[in-house]
Amino acid sequence: QVQLVESGGGLVQAGDSLRLSCAASGRPSSAEVMGWFRQAPAKEREFVAAITWSTSVTAYTDSVKGRFIISRDNAKNTVYLQMNSLKPEDTAVYYCTLGRIWTRLESSYDYWGQGTQVTVSS
């Protein structure tokens, strides 16, 4: 059974940093892509970043490029999202997700965590 458990969210001020973690258990070998999505109030869930487990290829949405860094620790089966220079518009529930296809499409991911709240005050 696949489980994704996020941690690291919280309330910070604009300009601060946070690091989110996502611990994956029961990951099938075919599930090669780990992604982060976020959903702000009254908005649709959107892609933030993704990384491949085997080669560490990464991708980011434009609004976080240069501020967020996605990384993984294969030994710990954990993916991280280092978020720097946070802005109020980064406020959202952040979800980690696991899938087989290198994509930014939410519908193509197979497994989802429960989400962690990130709130950035101005």
Structure summarized in a few sentences:
The chain is mostly beta strands and 122 residues long.
Distance between the termini: 40 Å
Low-pLDDT segments, ≥5 res: none
Structural class: mainly beta
Mean pLDDT: 96
Beta-strand fraction estimate: over 45%
How many H/I helices?
Answer: 0
**What's the SSE pattern?**
EEEEEEEEEEE
Q: What level of helicity do the residues show?
A: under 10%
Major sheet: 7 strands, mixed
Question: Total number of β-strand segments?
Answer: 11
What characteristic shape results from the CA principal axes? Answer: globular
In angstroms, what is the radius of gyration? 13 Å
Structure commentary:
By secondary structure, the protein is mainly beta. Strand 4 and strand 5 form a beta hairpin. It starts with a strand and ends with a strand. The model has no long low-confidence stretch (mean pLDDT 96).
List the helices and strands and how they pair.
Elements: E1 3-7, E2 10-13, E3 18-25, E4 33-39, E5 46-52, E6 58-60, E7 68-73, E8 78-83, E9 92-99, E10 109-112, E11 116-121
Parallel strand pairs: 2-11
Antiparallel strand pairs: 1-3, 3-8, 4-5, 4-9, 5-6, 7-8, 9-10, 9-11
